[in-house]
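Thread: guanosine-5'-triphosphate complex, take 2
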Amino acid sequence: MAIENKPGQDFDIVLGQNDSLGLSSQRDHDTSKPWVLKIIVIGDSNVGKTCLTYRFCGGTFLKNPEATIGVDFREKTLELDGETIKLQIWDTAGQERFRRSMVEHYYRSVHAVIFVYDVTSLSSFESIPEWVDECSRHSVGPMVPRIMVGNKCDLRDQREVSTSTAQCLADSYNFPLFETSAKDPAEKEHVDAIFLTLAYRLKSHKPMRLKQLSESSDRQLWNQREQEASICQC
Ligand SMILES: Nc1nc2c(ncn2[C@@H]2O[C@H](COP(=O)(O)OP(=O)(O)OP(=O)(O)O)[C@@H](O)[C@H]2O)c(=O)[nH]1
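Output below.
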């Protein structure tokens, strides 16, 4: 496995300029460079955010993940209809004490949001409106695509959140709902579908304004995390 962006190597990121999605009305995309889309994964601690992103990027189930501190970055490059798209996935900390200093970074110039709850934990589901509110408080506009994901569906006997209850909440926000399991290998396609759905939705929007990531503080953050060897090499 090889990481797409080596330390010190510059690459582009789409940063919001003209509207909440960072989209411009004119095509100014250099086709030799991929789109880079920032997706954040948020939700209570222990719902499986790290395992879901790892399943998508690395293809396997991470057996003993440690609680995320601040953020872990993962990247996946996709070819969609002949265009290269890099998904820069921010796996955020669910525990308040590990996210406090990072929250502003999470939401800055974000292109899509994945809200995760655990189908075996009613309280994690009941927290979803708080996560949605946090997004709004950080000025994530209504144009930014959002998806709701119920994880750990393999634990059938322990389910506390029914599909219909979750669908009601998702409908009230007009979010697509996915139920899946990071653990069950048979669910890999559903996990992929979450991220692909977002990638296609973002790609279908108008062409995007590009800005060098090296100009932003996101770049510094990324470098710092690379030095701490906390980027998943997938
Ligand atoms: N059975 C089952 N367990 C899962 C699944 N996904 C994650 N887990 C387990 O749930 C626990 C928490 O997983 P994480 O991915 O670390 O959860 P997180 O949401 O990233 O947690 P924080 O980093 O604290 O925010 C771990 O013990 C995982 O093995 C799943 O789909 N099924």
